[in-house]
Specification:
single chain; Aminopeptidase; ten-stranded mixed sheet; disordered N terminus
């Protein structure tokens, strides 16, 4: 099995927006500290990667978002022509052995439609259930970390947000768009710090 390693990312508060940020709770003191994590891209040609996604669908059963992503990935993987430009990313606390991705260590997951080499539509994004339901979760900013990671590879990101999550995207430098029917949030790169996604695929 192969899970394509995109990058090892240091998560540190108050860094520039293109670098993901997350914090981990110290089990002894209860304080939150910065943590190094990884961002990986799922290989749809490997059945075990699909299996991991299905495991997450069962564990993160709120809103069925992860389950939908797993079904989409499986449907694409079963097609002879996979050139529909859907990509699946995970932010994980796992440090190595990415060919054996551990579903217990995945912090957030997303599906994007890769329209051009630097433009993407986020179809789904979800954080692990603990980070969204517990008062003092082990990890915080899991969803924001995923968005920060995407910003590192794309210059333009857009999506449709439900009313209850609009503030989340506003907090992550997205702007609300009212003139479009298919999407209502967008983010545009305003610096020259983006990494060309073509280079990320080499």
């Amino acid at each position: 099995m192969k899970v394509n390693l995109i990058s090892n990312i240091y998560f540190q508060a108050n860094q520039l927006s293109f670098k993901p940020q997350v914090v981990k709770r110290d089990e002894t003191t209860g304080e939150y500290k910065t943590e190094k994590a990884s961002m990986v891209e799922i290989d749809l040609k490997n059945p075990n990667d699909i299996k991991v996604m299905k495991e997450l669908g069962e564990k993160w059963d709120n809103d069925y978002l992860m389950e939908n992503m797993a079904d989409n990935a499986e449907n694409i993987a079963n097609r002879e022509d996979q050139a529909d430009n859907h990509r699946f990313f995970a932010v994980t606390s796992q440090k190595d052995n990415f060919e054996n991705l551990n579903s217990d260590k995945v912090l957030s997951f997303c599906e994007v439609h890769d329209e051009t080499y630097n433009k993407a539509k986020v179809e789904y994004i979800q954080s692990n259930a603990e980070s969204t339901t517990m008062y003092n979760p082990k990890y915080k900013r899991c969803g924001s970390a995923m968005l920060d990671g995407l910003k590192h590879y794309y210059n333009y990101i857009y999506l449709y947000s439900l009313p209850c999550t609009i503030q989340f995207y506003l907090n992550n430098e997205f702007k609300q768009v009212k003139s479009q029917k298919e999407y209502n949030m967008e983010w545009k790169n305003s610096s020259n710090l983006q990494e060309d996604i073509k280079n990320s695929r080499k």
